[in-house]
Amino acid sequence: VQLQASGGGTVQAGGSLRLSCAASGIAFSIAAMGWYRQAAGNERELVAYITNDGRTSYAGSVKDRFSISRDNAKNTVYLQMNSLKPEDTGVYYCNVVIGFNNFWGQGTQVTVSS
């Protein structure tokens, strides 16, 4: 299983970024996918989640600003992040759970300056 995250960068508060996570080695169309983030000194937290049939859920801190989506033809999950705030800064990871195994991408850094 490989999860390749990309799209991070530095943006000013109020800006937008779109993260992508390309998956391989899994039956992507039947997998539920998640985006997590970890700020320095903090634990990793769930940001957004999408089921295989497209149902989504969000952390309260990002609801109405972030949107998770998937393209099964491209084996890719996206995280559109709008109205970014400095507290959104962190390393963002994509995740898939298969059976009892938890798989993580390498992470992509998002930095939001005030």
By DSSP (H or I, 4+ residues per run), the number of helices equals 0
Query: Which word captures the global form?
Result: globular
Low-confidence stretches: none
What is the alpha-carbon Rg in Å?
A: 13 Å
Fraction of residues in H or I helices: under 10%
Major beta sheet summary:
7 strands, mixed
Strand content: over 45%
Order of helices and strands: EEEEEEEEEEE
Report the average pLDDT across residues: 96
Distance between the termini: 37 Å
The chain-level structural class is mainly beta
Number of DSSP-assigned strands: 11
State the oligomer: single chain
How would you characterize this protein structure?
The protein has 114 residues and is mainly β. It has strands at residues 2-6, 9-12, 17-24, 33-38, 45-50, 56-58, 66-71, 76-81, 90-98, 101-104, 108-113. The strands form 2 sheets. Strands 2, 4, 5, 6, 9, 10 and 11 form a 7-stranded mixed beta sheet that branches. Strands 1-3-8-7 form a 4-stranded antiparallel beta sheet, with no helix packed on it. The radius of gyration is 13 Å and the shape is globular. It starts with a strand and ends with a strand.
